Amino acid sequence: MSDSESVPPESPPRRIGIVEDHESVVIGLETMLADQPDLAIAASAATVPELLAQGTALDLVILDLRLSDGSSPQSNVEQLRSAGLETLVFTGAENPYLVRLAAKAGVLGVVRKSEPTATVVAAITAAANGEQVVTTEWAAAIDGDPGLLDVGLSPRQRDVLAHYASGEKAARVASLTGLAEHTVNDYLARIRAKYAEAGRPARTKTDLYKRAVEDGWLPMPRHPDQP
């Protein structure tokens, strides 16, 4: 190398923030990234508002879906995006409904906590560089359980199903969706027909609730002792 040539300066590491209310998970991520010169955990907090209040400059936020403050994944992602921050979800991914809420708000991807370290690090690296992280788990959560036949509900039909199956009467669903009550009843008949054609009959309101949970349009019921 001649005297006139200079070594280009090294790029600073991507700064990572973590929103996670289990300390062991934060420690685990710190351990995973400890020998990654391109990545550095710069901040962590139990909630999104707490992380944002720190005012730390970040390139990416790793977010758990289910936090003890009861916040919505969609709201959390929207808050982060409003602050100019992209999000990678790091979760057990056991709840398609929560994954859908986050995906709807626009995350870069979803990674299971059970994945091997190399997979997690690769996902964080890609997301920190602004790349989409497409995993089988994310696709399955968005599209529904791959073991269940998709019934092909339209967005409007999914909206009607979610309201009705959660316990609302047809008249109330009509009010909430801006549809006529007879239109709601027509949608429900079509929804039942589609489930029947897929070999997943939904004759009763309880059946519709089960199908909506299976497909991730409603959250899974929690145990009474669950936070």
Automatic annotation (TrEMBL):
<feature type="domain" description="Response regulatory">
    <location>
        <begin position="15"/>
        <end position="128"/>
    </location>
</feature>
<dbReference type="Pfam" id="PF00072">
    <property type="entry name" value="Response_reg"/>
</dbReference>
<keyword id="KW-0238">DNA-binding</keyword>
<protein>
    <submittedName>
        <fullName>DNA-binding response regulator, NarL/FixJ family, contains REC and HTH domains</fullName>
    </submittedName>
</protein>
<keyword id="KW-0597">Phosphoprotein</keyword>
<dbReference type="InterPro" id="IPR001789">
    <property type="entry name" value="Sig_transdc_resp-reg_receiver"/>
</dbReference>
<dbReference type="GO" id="GO:0003677">
    <property type="term" value="F:DNA binding"/>
</dbReference>
<dbReference type="Pfam" id="PF00196">
    <property type="entry name" value="GerE"/>
</dbReference>
<feature type="modified residue" description="4-aspartylphosphate">
    <location>
        <position position="64"/>
    </location>
</feature>
<dbReference type="InterPro" id="IPR036388">
    <property type="entry name" value="WH-like_DNA-bd_sf"/>
</dbReference>
<dbReference type="InterPro" id="IPR016032">
    <property type="entry name" value="Sig_transdc_resp-reg_C-effctor"/>
</dbReference>
<dbReference type="GO" id="GO:0006355">
    <property type="term" value="P:regulation of DNA-templated transcription"/>
</dbReference>
<dbReference type="InterPro" id="IPR000792">
    <property type="entry name" value="Tscrpt_reg_LuxR_C"/>
</dbReference>
<dbReference type="GO" id="GO:0000160">
    <property type="term" value="P:phosphorelay signal transduction system"/>
</dbReference>
<dbReference type="InterPro" id="IPR039420">
    <property type="entry name" value="WalR-like"/>
</dbReference>
<dbReference type="InterPro" id="IPR011006">
    <property type="entry name" value="CheY-like_superfamily"/>
</dbReference>
